[in-house]
Amino acid sequence: MEKEMVIVLDFGGQYNQLIARRVRECNVYCEVHPYSMSLEKLKELNPKGIIFTGGPNSVYKEGAPGCTREIFEMGIPILGICYGSQLMAYLLGGNVKTAPVSEYGKTEVDVDKSSVLFSDVLEKTICWMSHTDYIEKEPEGFRVTACTPVCPVAAMENAEKQLYAVQFHPEVIHTQEGMKMLSNFVYNICHCSGNWRMDSFVETSIRQIREKVGSGKVLCALSGGVDSSVAAVLLAKAVGKQLTCVFVDHGLLRKNEGDEVEAVFGPKGPYDLNFVRVNAQERFYAKLAGVEEPEIKRKIIGEEFIRVFEEEAKKIGVVDFLVQGTIYPDVIESGLGKSAVIKSHHNVGGLPAYVDFKEIIEPLRLLFKDEVRKAGLELGIPEHLVYRQPFPGPGLGVRIIGEVTAQKVRMIQEADAIYREEIVKAGADKNLGQYFAALTNMRSVGVMGDERTYDYAVALRAVNTSDFMTAEAAQIPWEVLGIVAGRIVNEVKGVNRVLYDCTGKPPATIEFE
Ligand code: XMP
Q: Is the pTM of this model over 0.90?
């Protein structure tokens, strides 16, 4: 079967991976490459189509990312988006101008339905705009196929040369018919057949991992969460017993989780792995004693993790590769992409510079959470593991506000277990992206029996989200919250108050630290 691929050339836009993901949703394999990729390399990859991303620059700015005009002569269909569309216009002789005011947000666009790109799209369709520069005049040989009152060339094309450009962002959900446009591009312009499925990702990854690893030894950081479990099984299928999975019980896991992970991945589980469990609870608690600042806690946990791995690696002998279950949202939120640092995820930003391994393998680095789950199902991982809710690498360390102590860990483990049990019992878990209990560092006065108490408050969190980059607080039925609150204050010693977090993300984040 011919391997079809569309290439996204990244000009620095914030939605570059999102474009790739949308193309994959059309069942066409898609990879993101830097705009500076050579034409020879591009030809070698033999793409069925190319998409230019947006970017923060102006085409006239010195040193702005660009490409040679030859790319337009290769006979490969190209779709330019935002900056990509301006670049196309500029390089082919059109005019790009800076507007006095930016056009930003949902905008009604008039489209010419005779364009293949807009087939089956409404004549007036809502699109997401985010630009200051605009194409004032299209290059010769092009025709304008969409406009808004302030944007004379919201889309243009030279169908003969298979060159298409849109000023708006078809990849974001606010562009109501964006998926239709991208699907028109890959099917009706690039003539892809749509034969790619997640099993191809799994197959290709296994092959690439085998090539890379050769006869080397691999160490995998297994946390028991969805991402690292999928990464571990992928590696196990690729290199079998060359892989050792080290599961660090840092004492910041949910109640009974350490044993559950061991039951699945340990010697009695279904996978043929080398499995090592390290019980490092006391070591982590000692390092965290007296530390309150969230970023410092994250860094300490991340660093201690790596130290433990290094020690295990030494016991195993020479280890060449370290595997991590980093996924795409971790990469951008840790500031390794283009956006600002929100939190340094311990499996990405918290990595110390002096790691004792030849190379890090992150097979899921380009996938979004739901894509990771699909890959997990392809790999035959049981559904209850694949649909497990995400759990942060630093674990309860970021769900205990302020200083972490063994006693606080026990309190929050108990409270969280009660919360999760009652949510499942009430059938309220089905549509929730994530739900958990956190321990605030607020103590307040209560009365139990005839006694005054001065104890901690537990905060309950539940969010609806599909990408974990934005989320809204879920509406848990009041009766369920009542049962949970009653059980927590009665059963968890040291807690006398339960609060519900109604904040979305943004402005809050999902985790508390
Ligand atoms: P925030 O709190 O940033 O969380 O809104 C977004 C999603 O990421 C998870 N999360 C992490 N996952 N390592 C991880 O692997 C981390 O350090 C980490 N911090 C947050 C969080 O649970 C949510 O699903």
A: no
Q: How far is CA 168 from CA 90, 114, 182, 200, 265, in A?
A: 17, 19, 12, 31, 46
The pocket around ligand 1, CB under 6 angstroms, is made up of: 330, 333, 342-343, 345-347, 390, 392-394, 434, 468, 505, 509-511
Query: Is position 82 annotated as part of the catalytic site?
Result: yes
CATH at 169: 3.40.50.880
Q: Which of 354, 386, 418 is the last residue of a domain?
A: 386
Question: Total structural domains in the chain?
Answer: 3
CA distance 381 to 271: 10
333, 345, 400, 505: residue to mutate for ligand 1 pocket, most atoms within 8 A of CB: 345
Residue 33 catalytic? no
Strands 163-166 and 151-158: antiparallel
Judgement on whether residues 369 and 414 belong to the same structural domain of the protein: no
Q: Which residue, judged by its Cα, is nearest atom 7 of ligand 1?
A: 468
Question: For this structure, is 171 an active site residue?
Answer: yes
Same domain, 19 and 138: yes
Query: Both 372 and 430 in a single domain?
Result: no
Strand partners, 80: 52, 165
Q: Which atom of ligand 1 is nearest to the CA of 343?
A: 3
394 part of a folded domain: no
Reported as a single tens digit per residue, the pLDDT across 375-401 is 999 998 888 788 888 888 899 999 999
Give the structural domain span for 78: 6-189
Which residues, in sequence order, are bridge partners of residue 330? none
* H-helix segments, 27-82: 39-45
Query: Cβ distance 298 to 350 under 8 Å?
Result: yes
Q: Facing residues of 434 across strands?
A: 463
* 360 CA distance to ligand 1 middle (Å): 20
- Residue 267 resides in a domain: yes
From ligand 1's centre to the CA of 345, what distance in Å?
7
How far is ligand 1, taken at its centre, from the CA of residue 469, in Å? Answer: 9
3-state secondary structure of 71: helix
Q: Which of 386, 409, 440 is the last residue of a domain?
A: 386
Question: Using one digit for the tens of pLDDT, what is the confidence trace for 282-331?
Answer: 999 999 999 999 999 999 998 898 888 778 877 887 788 989 888 887 76
CA nearest ligand 1 atom 12, residue: 392
**Which ranges constitute the DSSP H helices of 188-327?**
198-213, 226-239, 257-265, 281-288, 294-316
Determine which one of 103, 171, 378, 414 is catalytic: 171
Considering the domain architecture, whether residues 210 and 275 belong to the same structural domain is answered as yes
